[in-house]
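Residues pack. Consider this:
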Amino acid sequence: MGHDSRSARIRLLVAEQAARRGARVGVVDVCTAAVAALPVGGAGLSAMSRTAPSHPLCSTDDISRQLEELQLTLGEGPCVEAFARGSAVLTPDLLTVEPKDHWAVFADAALEAGARAIFSLPLQMGAISPGVLDLYADIPTVLDIEELADAMAFADLATLLLLDARIDETGAGAPTDKTVPDRGFEDLGAYRAEIDQATGMLTVQLGVGIDEAFVRLRAHAYARERRLADVAADVVARRLRFPPDAEPDQTEEAT
């Protein structure tokens, strides 16, 4: 299946979940749609950052909730590893030797919670990673090539929804129905590229690293109650500039 047709199908599945809730599309809809489409029993998503505390954002059932909390509390597990590595961590069976060696405490706790297989997919846009999508099954499970491609498409969509939510002062995402984009699904590649380009421009303007530049971009969006994509568009068009010596929410409008 082509990338465009897969993305369109995934967007439709997620939109259908939002319609059932009677709300705008949010990351919770990505989780529920992924469970409906893939051979997994539940899904959870956590906001993660190297500059702010990580925390669970949503889960589809009690087991996925426990898995998210366990990994962030213990500081180990496939979710933590996927975020650190920036690549998917696929664990078809938690009883095998490798998970036991890597995450001994988490593996035992996850098995006790009712999970047997876990698939962790980092949410990524260029060098930015705002979190991880976790899928679990209660029996040993292997995702085939098509299923894995679908899982990654769900993670890609969750990334865009999470980044476009307003951000609280800690820099961690806190989407609500009111903060989810209402413009519908845009072209994912163009959207991703513009925010990535704006963040890169801020590293030059501010003389900081990519993570700090992104935090500043989000802080401005939150302070002005604007969407992240709209602020990024202003930065790229040079309508908005961030002085290096200004406070995080102080910027200069181009004249």
In short: Strands lie at 42-47, 55-59, 89-91, 117-125, 128-137, 240-241, 252-253. Residues 166-189 have pLDDT under 50 and may be disordered. The CA atoms of residues 88 and 121 lie 5 Å apart.
